[in-house]
Specification:
single chain, 23% helix, 181 residues, 36% strand, binds fe (ii) ion
Length: 181
């Protein structure tokens, strides 16, 4: 497939292509099950993922699947946002903390906070609103899959108080983030 945005090794390509195929030809559940197996035995993915000098890298994009490598910087709280499509985080190193929100009119209100240690797969439905953070000491290792073209999606990011929704733009996302405590 020609939809890779960067060079990645065969194990990473195989993971992305298998997840995409299972989602398109079978179901999201089949794709999630495959990711659960993959993160439980991550050696090949770890060795075939390049050493990126950046904590968020777009790996693959087409109409069905967007895949990002995300090594969340520790001790930063990122703002609540939606995806407008199913989103699945496959955590194969470290831990990722999710803060889940409920919708309250145009605003969102914090509901719960859960830390997922690797290996773990977190899947979020189309309407989910969450924020992520890495409360550990070192960047984590995750691949986030979005089942659609995330770059074209109409979706909101809120401020840290869950107010002032605006179209998600990555610059806004970074500007709204703040250190934990
Ligand atoms: Fe997200």
């Amino acid at each position: 497939m020609n939809d890779y945005e960067v060079e990645v090794g065969d194990a990473v390509k195989d993971l992305i292509e298998t997840v995409r195929r299972l989602y398109v030809e079978n179901s999201i559940d089949a794709a999630v099950d495959h990711l659960k197996e993959a993160v439980a035995n991550p050696a090949a993915i770890i060795s075939d993922m390049p050493d990126f000098d950046c904590d968020e890298v777009l790996l693959y994009l087409d109409d069905h699947v967007t895949a990002y490598y995300i090594a969340t910087t520790p001790q930063i709280l990122y703002p609540p946002h939606e995806h407008g499509m199913i989103a699945v985080s496959a955590i194969y190193g470290g831990a990722e903390t999710h803060i889940f929100y409920d919708r309250d009119g145009d605003d969102v209100v914090e509901r719960s906070q859960v830390t997922f240690d690797a290996p773990n797969v977190v899947d979020l439905d189309v309407n989910a609103v969450h924020a992520i953070s890495n409360l550990g000491e070192r960047p984590n290792q995750t691949i986030h899959f979005y089942f659609g073209d995330l770059e074209m999606a109409k979706r909101h990011v809120w401020d840290m108080d869950g107010k002032n929704p605006r179209q998600y733009v990555h610059e806004n996302y970074l500007n709204l983030s703040r250190p934990v405590n």
